[in-house]
Amino acid sequence: MLTGWSDTYYTLSSSIMNRTVSNPAGYQLTRLAVLGPAFWTTYHTLWECSLYQSPFQAPGFLKYLSDKTSHEVYVYQFFKNDVLVGATVFQNRKNTLLFLSQVKSDHNYFILHEKTIAKDWDHFFEGLFQTIRDHRFCCEFNNLAGWASYHGSFEKSYQESPLFSKSVDSAVCPMLVKSSPAELGKKLKKSRTNRYKKNRLVREQGATFHAETDLENISEWTSAFCACHIERWSDTPTPSAYRNPNKIYALEEFLRTWHADGLLVRFSIKTEDKIIAFCIGLLQQNSLIYHSPTYDEAFNKYSVGQVLISFMGEWMQANNLSVLDFGHGSEKYKFRYANEKGILKTLFLAPKSSFLFCGKASIITFFRRRPYLIDKYRQHIRPVVIQMQRWIQPNKSVYG
To answer: Which of 61, 133, 367, 391 places its Cα 20 to 30 Å from the Cα of 42?
Structure first.
């Protein structure tokens, strides 16, 4: 147990919420504008001691997004004996709460202290759903990490709530999980074909391999990454979002915030002339998240994407990491390596009187539970929807 903790809970004052639930717990929902630097200092302390130190809920990343978003930002806080032991930061879009982090995240967590127990999780979520009910918010919680240890308490709490709720498996997160860094490195370096292509790439193109944890040449690296991404997706139904210069600027700022929290590793393969393969790596405890890879298709014969993964395995072994998290998406190449499949979930939650939201949620869950329809949507409808959104709102903020 944490020093000074006991089973006694109490409620702190708040301009928005001040109440107890049936298992008395102190909690509050506050507009972030009311909170100053002291909140971010406290949140940073909580995040560093949390169950899942996700880069997508990291303090620098969320602080940056909170300063940029055009929507109101709220924070739900949960206290035990005057200690912040749980928190989640939301944006409020037309009375619908979403994770602030969903602007750019592979998966989302509720931040809970590593020494909390199941009873604490029950109280945390009971307070959250009571708050949502009292303020008549609608909620769309996307990319929830279904493998989180607290997920059973989360499900139990919303199922017992009188709110309308619809939960659906929305995506998968392939992972390579090994018992030790040595085992992981062995797995990722196993392919003879990749070793052959790596040696050929070095011999014929003078390739070098890089894992950078500093900010040297960060602007040039980001610009090269985006140019490569644009070219990679130029002849597909889903062209790169980095055609928008504001997206390039935002990406560099995201990289800077992750670096500030000690989470960023930039992987790349370079020839004498240019970078031909990229991957943004994000650290999460003993894991590396394989976030936003891209490569130059002119070097397809060398399988540079797979060669880069092999190099990443060497780096992970040397840096004592035993989990490679391939992030959101079920691309086939990920399953050449993955031995586990995390489920990402979406939860829709609202007062039962919110008929439009409940109807929309029911339609979305209907389609998401039928993979063959989702495939048709992604192939034929989604590209058209994205293009129409860009025509209708060409100057829409990249931060939501």
So the answer is: 133
Determine the Cα–Cα distance for residues 263 and 55; give it in Å rounded to an integer.
7
Across the range 148-176, mean pLDDT stands at: 96
pTM of the model: 0.89
Helices (H), 211-341: 218-232, 245-260, 304-318
Cα gap 47→263, rounded to integer Å: 13
User: In the predicted model, is pLDDT for residue 15 greater than 80?
Assistant: no
State the burial class of residue 363 (Cβ atoms within 10 Å of its Cβ: 0-12, 13-18, 19+): exposed
**Residue 293, helix vs strand vs coil:** strand
User: Cβ(50)–Cβ(86) under 8 Å?
Assistant: no
Q: Please name which of 98, 79, 81 lies closest in space to residue 90, comparing C-alpha atoms.
A: 98
131, amino acid identity: T
Structure-block tokens of residue 94: 């037309």
Is residue 92 helix, strand or coil? strand
- Angle in degrees, 0-180, between the axes of helices 304-318 and 192-205, rounded to the nearest 10: 100
Mean pLDDT score, 325-333: 95
pLDDT of 341-367, one tens digit each? 999 999 999 999 999 999 999 998 988
Q: Strand 323-325 vs strand 287-295: parallel, antiparallel, or unpaired?
A: parallel
Name the 3-class secondary structure at 298: helix
> What span, in angstroms and rounded, lies between the C-alpha atoms of 184 and 166?
37
Q: What 8-state DSSP symbol labels residue 12?
A: P
CB atoms within 10 A of CB 216: 9
* Joined tokens for residue 187: 């797995």
Burial class, 379, CB count within 10 angstroms (exposed 0-12 / middle 13-18 / buried 19+): exposed
Closest residue by Cα to residue 90 from 71, 107, 112, 117: 71
Give 321-382 as a 3 state SS string. CCEEECCCCCCHHHHHCCCEEEEEEEEEEECCCCHHHHHHHHHHHHHHCCHHHHHHHHHHHH
> How far is 228 from 131, CA to CA, in rounded Å?
45
3-class DSSP assignment, residue 89? strand
In whole angstroms, give the CA distance from residue 162 to residue 147.
25
Residue 104 has pLDDT above 50, yes or no: yes
Q: How confident is the model over 218-249, as pLDDT tens digits?
A: 999 999 999 999 999 998 878 999 999 999 99
Q: Which tokens in the block code for residue 390?
A: 């860009």
